[in-house]
Amino acid sequence: MADRTIIGLVILLNAIAAGVLYQRFHDHPQVQLLESKALELYHTLLPPKTPDRCGAIKWPAYVLVSDRVVFPDGVRPGAVYISGSKIVDVSENTTVDMPHVLNFKDAVISPGVIDVHIHLNEPGREEWEGISNGTRAAVSGGVTTVIDMPLNSNPVTTTLAQLEAKKARAKVKAFTHVGFWAGLVPENAANHTVLAELVAGGALGFKSFMCNSGINDFGNVGRQDIAAALPFLKARGLPFFVHAEVVSPVETDPAADPTAYATYMATRPPKFEQDAIRLLVELLDADATPAAPGFSVHIAHLADAGALDMIKAAQARHPITVETCAHYLTFAAEDVPNGQTQYKCAPPIRGSANRQRLITAVASGAIDLVSSDHSPAPPSLKATDTGNFLKAWGGISGAQYLLPASWTALEGAGVDLLGLARLLSEAPARLAGLAGRKGKLAPGYDADVVVWEPETRTNTSVALNLHTHKLSPYTDVPLKGKVLASVVGGELMALFGNTNKQPCGTLLLKRD
Ligand SMILES: *[C@@H]1O[C@H](CO)[C@@H](O)[C@H](O)[C@H]1NC(C)=O
Ligand SMILES: *[C@@H]1O[C@H](CO)[C@@H](O)[C@H](O)[C@H]1NC(C)=O
Ligand SMILES: *[C@@H]1O[C@H](CO)[C@@H](O)[C@H](O)[C@H]1NC(C)=O
Ligand SMILES: *[C@@H]1O[C@H](CO)[C@@H](O)[C@H](O)[C@H]1NC(C)=O
Ligand SMILES: [Zn+2]
After folding, report:
1. Which residues constitute the signal peptide according to the record (predicted)?
2. Is 90 exposed, middle or buried (0-12, 13-18, 19+ CB in 10 A)?
C-alpha cells in the first residue's frame, strides 16, 4: 500500500513537472517561483528514461513547438521533432501526436548559434577563461557550437599534440559542441606535413595573425609565410582565418592621456586593416593554385567599414569571407568612458558613423557573419586599477551576449529572424565546413536549437554573467533577445536561465 502511494505520488509529481515545463513560465506568476529550480526539479522528478541522455530532458524523442519556427526559408508556426541527437522532422503541422511536447507559444525557435571566434585559453590559461565556464556562458546565451582559437592557450595549437590536448579537455568539459582552428605560424606555414597532421587531427581550418598576437609563441606571419601556406589551404579547401592588421609607424601624441579611449584608437588606425587586406589580395592574385570548395580567406573581426569596397572588388576574383563582431555593431568610440578598458580590443571599436556602415554591410550581405571574439583576461591584465588603455590586454568578454547584441544592433537595419539565423548559424556553419549538418532546422541536421524571445530584454546584470571574469562592456546594456532554452545535439542544456549540471557538448572534428 505504502509503495503504491509513493508510486502514485511520483507519477503525480512527474505530471506536475511536465505540466510546468509545458507552460511559459514568465507568463505565469504562480509558477515563477519554481523557475530557478526548474531543471533541478525536473532531474529529481523524471528519472532517466534513456541512460544516454545527458541533458535535462531525459526523453529519447521529443518535439519543440512554437508559433515562430525559423524554417530554412521563413518563419511560421511549426514543430521540430528531435530524436537522439538529430532533428528528424520539421513540420508546419503543430498538432503533435507524440507524448513529449514542449510548446513555447510565441517564442522563436531558431537554429543554435555558432560562434566561430572564441578564445577558451585552455590548457594553460584557464585563469583567463576556460572550456567549462566559457561554453556554459555561451550556451546560456543560445550558442550551441563554438570554434576555439589556437591562442591564447598555453601551449598554442600549432602541432597535432597540442590539438590533442585541447580535444581531450573539451571532450569532458564542454557545454556546447566545440571545434578548433589550428594556428598557422612562421614555424609551420611552409611545412605542409605539420599542417596536414592538424587537419587529420580534426582542425576545421587555420588562423594567422599579420601583426603581433600578444602571445610570444604565436608569431605573426609575413608575406612569405602566407605565400607558402596558400597552395596547401586552397588545395585542401580549408578556411584561412586572418587577423588582418599590418602595423606601421603612426604619429601619436606622447603626452596624450592613456586613460582616454581616443589615445588607444589613434595607435591602430583603419590603415592597418586596409594594408593587411591589400596584401592578402595581392598574395591571392599571385597564387595560381585552384581553390577547392571550402577555401576562403576569412577576414576575422573587420572593424573598419572603409575596407569593404576593396574586399568587394577582390571577391570577384577570390573566395573571401568577412566577419565582424557584435561589439563593433553595438558600441562606438565616442561613447567609451575614460579608463573603461573592458572596451579594448584589436582592431579597435571605431566611431559611430563607421558602426552604422558596418551594420548596413551586415544587413546587405557584404559581411557574411557575426562572431563574439570572446577573449577575456584577468582584471590585472585589463589594467582595471589604472584604466590605462595602452597597457590593458585587448580582448572583449561577450560570448554570452552574441545573440541579443547582434539582434539588437541589426533588427533596426531590416534584418529579420531568418536573416539573423543566416548570419549567426547558417553562414558560420558553411565557413567551418559544417553545411549540411549544422546551421538550419531541417531533417537530418544536428538538433542544435535556441528558443528565445526577440521582443524581451535580456538581463545583462553582472550577477548573471557566467564568464570566468565578469568585466564586460555588455553589462547593463539594454539588449533585446531573451534566451529561454538551448538544445545541444538533442540535449537540453539551458532553460529559463538555468544551465544543465553535466557538460554534454561534443567535439566537432573535420570529416573528409
Ligand atoms: C496534423 O497532425 C495530426 C497528428 O498527427 C493529424 O491528426 C492531422 O491530420 C495533421 N493535420 C494535417 C493538416 O495534416
Ligand atoms: C616538418 O616538421 C616536422 C615535425 O616538426 C619535421 O620532422 C620535418 O622535418 C619538417 N619538414 C620540413 C620540410 O621542414
Ligand atoms: C536581473 O538579474 C539580477 C540578478 O539576478 C536581479 O537582481 C535583477 O532584478 C534582474 N533585473 C530584472 C529587470 O529582472
Ligand atoms: C569559473 O568561473 C567562476 C566564477 O567566476 C570562478 O570562480 C571559477 O574559478 C571558474 N572556473 C574555472 C575552472 O576557471
Ligand atoms: Zn580573436
Report:
1. none
2. buried
The residue to mutate among 65, 76, 93, 96, having the most atoms of ligand 1 within 8 angstroms of its beta carbon, is: 93
Best mutation site among 193, 197, 198, 232 for ligand 2 pocket (most ligand atoms within 8 Å of CB) = 193
> Is there a single domain that holds both residue 52 and residue 133?
no
Pairing assessment for the beta strands 61-71 and 108-111 based on DSSP bridges? parallel
- Quote the ligand 3 centre to 64 CA distance (angstroms): 28
* Mean pLDDT of each 10-residue bin along the chain, 512 residues long: 40 44 37 36 49 81 94 98 97 91 92 98 97 98 98 97 98 98 98 98 98 96 98 98 98 96 98 98 98 98 98 98 98 98 98 98 98 97 97 98 98 98 98 97 98 97 97 98 97 91 95 70
Q: What is the pLDDT of residue 238?
A: 98
Task: Return the number of other C-beta atoms located less than 10 Å from residue 412's C-beta.
Answer: 9
User: Which pLDDT does position 31 carry in this prediction?
Assistant: 29
Residue 488 covered by a domain: no
Say whether both 46 and 119 belong to one domain. no
Point out which residues pair with 494 in neighbouring strands. 486, 499
Q: Tell me how far apart the alpha carbons of residues 17 and 510 are, in angstroms, rounded to a whole number.
A: 40
- Any residues with Cβ below 6 Å from ligand 2, and which? 191, 193-194
CATH number at residue 178: 3.20.20.140
pLDDT at 273: 98
Does residue 103 fall inside a structural domain?
Answer: yes
Neighbour tally for 259: CB within 10 Å? 19
Task: Give yes or no: residues 326 and 447 share one domain.
Answer: yes
| Nearest alpha carbon, ligand 3 atom 4 | 463
N residues, the chain: 512
pLDDT given at position 18: 46
Q: Give residue 57's domain range.
A: 2-109
Ligand 5 midpoint to CA 328 (Å): 13
Instruction: Give residues (CB < 6 A) around ligand 1.
Output: 93, 95, 97
Q: Which helix (H) or strand (E) holds 296?
A: strand 296-299
> Are 300 and 407 in the same domain?
yes
Per-residue model confidence (pLDDT) at position 41: 44
* Per-residue model confidence (pLDDT) at position 298: 98
d(CA 449, CA 426): 12
Are 132 and 251 part of one and the same domain? Answer: yes
